[in-house]
Task: structure prediction
Amino acid sequence: LQIINPKYTASAVRKDQYPDSGLPEIAFLGRSNVGKSSLINSLCNYRGLARVSGEPGKTQTINYFSVELREKDGEAIRRTPFFLVDLPGYGFARTGGQKRQMWSDFIGEYVTQSPHLVMLCLLVDLRHPGLDIDRQAYQWLSEHGVPLQIVGTKADKLKASEKRKNMIMLKQIFPTGHDAVVHSSLKKEGSAALLERILMSLDE
Ligand code: GTP
Ligand code: MG
Result:
């Protein structure tokens, strides 16, 4: 499995700005700085596709990247077109005066009302498996019936034993019916497993 032809397509903060191509969407949500944009770049093998920063709050809009998943099906090569959707992070308020909210309203609107969203990857920093803000996000998304895949990020920052232990915790804290995927954009770990899951959700 391989992602090919990644292209930035559109940005949106309102429903009438969503692209109308009808392609299925796989979206990425999680705390600011957890590595959503980096994960998209790593899946696409394309460094500057989504903007990345060491400072939290980099991604401010819903960003759509059109891609194709290339798969060898016996002799035939199959290509499945869809969108990878980068979302702004939560848990970081850029303006101090703002009312404390989990995330901007337009993120909630996107995850509950986007007609083509087939799976939301909820990214959790594998070093911190049970933060309140992530539990709240998970709870809210589950209550709203959003199909979830948990991804433990920045796995390169942990020793093998801690990684195993924290992955077990992730599965217990966020039971989605599908096992959490461990990932490192730095070491390119876990992309194959995540692509398998993405293909599965696109086929459902
Ligand atoms: P916002 O757009 O602000 O919500 O952040 P984001 O979730 O998109 O995070 P982003 O991809 O911009 O990455 C944030 C920081 O984490 C950057 O400094 C990245 O280089 C770093 N980072 C992302 N993924 C990994 C990883 O797998 N391993 C390591 N070591 N660092 C990572
Ligand atoms: Mg980002």
In short: Residues 2-203 form a domain with the Rossmann fold fold (CATH 3.40.50.300). DSSP finds five helices and seven strands in the chain.
